[in-house]
Each structure stands twice: as C-alpha cells, then as structure tokens.
Amino acid sequence: MVDVRIKNIEESDVDTLLxxxxxxxxxxxxxxxxxxxxxxxxxxxxxNNVFIEKEADVKADINANELSVKGNLSGAVQASVxxxxxxxxxxxxxxxxxxxxxxxxxxxxSSQVGDFPKAAESEAPAEETPAQSEE
Length: 135
Prior knowledge:
- The chain is mainly beta.
- It has one domain.
- The chain has one helix spanning 119-123; strands at residues 16-18, 23-30, 34-36, 39-46, 49-52, 57-69, 72-84, 89-101, 106-113.
C-alpha cells in the first residue's frame, strides 16, 4: 500500500485566514487560497484551495479547487482534489476527481471519485433538436 503524505501549508502560504479564535456563520466566496482554523457554519465557494486545519470545526457545504482537511468537517464537498489528513474527522458526501486519505482519518459518508459534470452542467436542460418535417 502507498503511504499517503498530505502537504503541509503554512499561514504565510495563504491569502485568507480564519484564525482559531474566530467563528463565522453564512456564505463565504473566495478567489485566493484560504486556511480555516476556527469555526464555520454555512457554505464555502472557492475558485482556489481551502485548507481546514486540526483545530477547525466546519459544518459547511464546500465547492473548491482543492480541499485539504486535517480538522472536523461535515457537509457535502466537491473539489478536483480532496485530501483527508490523519487527524481529519469527516462526515458527509464527497465528490472529487482525486481523493487521498491518510491512515488514521475518520470518514463517515459517501464518496464519488472520478470525472463528473459540475452541478451547473448536470442541471442544465438538454438541448432539443428541431423537428424535421418530411415533404
């Protein structure tokens, strides 16, 4: 079996930081890398990477480029790459092109791994072909 190594990110590597003494409830939209060390309840949308650290407690639906989890997370998450570190406690639904889990993490839920259409694409109505009349 391959030994999975989740990358370590420093605070200086991200543009947005929610520190361990902060809590937030609502929707967050991000365009730059973000690190969460505090409490978040709601929804997180990011065009970039989101890092949930060991001391974090997040109850949110998340859509991000890459998602790295080392703390507590519950919700429906979607990203190109999702990493669950050895200290991660995850509960919910995962959709990812790539999923890595370190030994020791807790995973309760379901996962769909591989290529799949984005939510907007899968909800769009199919194009109709105009009917051809025979004359």
